Amino acid sequence: MRSRFALPLALGLALSVGLPVAAQWTPSAEPLDLTAMHQIRTEGFEHSQVMTIESYLTDVYGPRLTNSPDMRQAADWAVKEMQGWGLANVHEEPWPFGRGWANDRFVALAVSPRAYPLIAYTKAWTPGTNGPVTAEAVYAPMESEADFARYRGTLKGKFVLISPIRDPEAHFEPQGRRFTRDDLQKLSMAPEPGQGPNEALRRMFLARRAFNEKLNHFLLDEGVAAVIESSRGDDGTVFVQSGGSQDPKAPPVPAQVVMAVEHYNRIARTLEKKIPVTLQFDIRNAFYDKDLNSFNIVAELPGTDKADQVVMLGAHFDSWHSGTGATDNAAGSAVMMEAMRILKESGVKLRRTVRLALWTGEEEGLLGSKAYVLQHFGDPKTMALKPEQAQVSAYFNVDNGTGAIRGVYLQGNEAVAPIFARWMEPFHDLGMRTLTIRNTGGTDHLSFDAVGIPGFQFIQDPIEYQTRTHHSNMDLYDRVQPGDMMKNAVIVASFVYDAATRDDLLPRKPLPPAPKPTTTQQGGR
Ligand SMILES: [Zn+2]
Questions:
Q1: Per-residue pLDDT for 308 more than 80?
Q2: Residue range 391-414, pLDDT digits in tens
Q3: I need a labelling partner for 364 at 20 to 30 A (CA). Which of 248, 292, 296, 479 fits?
Q4: Domains along the chain?
Q5: 40 C-alpha vs ligand 1 centroid, how far in Å?
Q6: Cα of 54 to ligand 1 centre, how many Å?
């Protein structure tokens, strides 16, 4: 490893002559099996199944909200498919989650003074309207408890618009984009020291959640027909998540809907003119509390001389409900399933056992991967570890949408950098050149990192992830980029192959200390 002081000089040199930005870590000299790389590329580029897998997980079986009947059917398909490929030990591992939920019917209409259809979605884990309901709309923006007094006693049986009118801006910037050389250069630089977790943001989040509970309580007491919020974003794109809880003992909440901002604003502006507006909603939602266990899907490719050691790869299988969870995260699940298929079909020989895990409960707080780690490797709260923890070389995760892999977040693991720099060499021609010492958060590799197992998330081109598809009704198959998906499956299969065949386990960071207990922990991306 070169001394860090050479960094500014080397980086300056690299940039001035247009060399790749990952030059700050000298690749290790370990052997690369280019024959295996060729076999993997051939299988992944000439016989790709990744978009077929994606279409089944989305068009046919999407969405996959945790513990919903749809998710169970999608899982049955994935299990059968992987058994059909000849993967070993394909099974579901249950863990305690809570009740399932599904929306079976949703109609939203403006009735008067003009009749027009509304783009809107019910929030997960909320009740329906118990048949079609036609009622008056009220514009009642509420942002603090002080606002309750203004509307108390006036909202019974009405559709209540609680968000203030927001003016969407015109789109002068493209919604989709790829990382530029400059973006990757900045990303490869270490973060400014001393930047801890954003305490102010955490407090704001907790205050908002506490207010939402009081607001739900007030609206339930008022006996509203349903609550309507306007969505972030625009162009008919609606971003919607949960409005209740999977906990069967959770307090009741009112029916809740998120509406496209353009439609929401039309109603609110009409109401501001003191012109009555009548709406009709027919929302049929069902709760499933017979089986409160969800599960993770697991499949393996047996190793040979080092079969007792394991390389893991995974992605979350669950999604939100208004689209089909195409980029979040059928894209990651399909790439990981395809990587397993490629390793199997290409016939490359694995020394360590390769284990795939498709998690559920990620959107609700990384619940599935946390349950798996607790069951197999150890307890991050006490750092009491199980023997299997020492047998896992690494865990690789994909959960940043459909975009092409451009590098790896090292999650603070310096020692692995030269090795990854070496493994990236065969993929420079696919645009993968960047390593960064930075952490990245909010997804399942964190569950492994928390018990000292090297867990990595890849750096991916953003495409339209934050601007269009992440948790929205437009998270659909058509937003998935086939070329990117094929590259990602080949790169993941290769990294897993390298980890499963090198002589040693991947180097680890020092074990994290048992954390001090905190009040709240939230997760899910
Ligand atoms: Zn996700």
A1: yes
A2: 999 999 999 999 999 999 999 999
A3: 479
A4: 3-97+292-501 (3.40.630.10), 103-167+197-288 (3.50.30.30)
A5: 26
A6: 15
